[in-house]
Design a protein that fits this description.
Elements: E1 22-24, E2 30-32, H1 33-38, E3 51-52, H2 58-63
Antiparallel strand pairs: 1-2, 1-3
Length: 74
C-alpha cells in the first residue's frame, strides 16, 4: 500500500491523498505537478521515473490513513 505522503518534497505544497496532482517515483518520493515538470519527470533522489500518484478516497483513508509525516525541508 502506498504511503501517500502529504507534501511535495521539493516545494512543500500540500498534496492531499484524495486529490489528483501528486507524482511519485518507485521509492515513493513525492512531488507536485509543477515540480515534477521542472524535474523532467526524473526523481532527484533516486533517478527513477516520476509518475502520477493514484488518489485514495476519503472512505478508505479512515481504514488506511495517509502519512502525516511531511518531507519538505526548507
Amino acid at each position: 500500500m502506498l504511503e501517500m505522503r502529504p507534501d511535495c518534497e521539493r516545494c512543500g505544497v500540500d498534496l492531499p491523498a484524495e486529490a489528483p496532482g501528486a507524482f511519485i517515483c518507485s521509492m515513493e518520493c513525492t512531488f507536485c505537478a509543477q515540480c515534477a515538470d521542472a524535474l523532467d519527470d526524473l526523481c532527484p533522489n533516486c533517478g527513477g521515473e516520476v509518475m502520477d500518484r493514484p488518489t485514495r478516497s476519503k472512505a478508505l483513508q479512515q481504514k488506511y490513513p495517509a502519512s502525516a509525516q511531511r518531507r519538505f525541508e526548507a
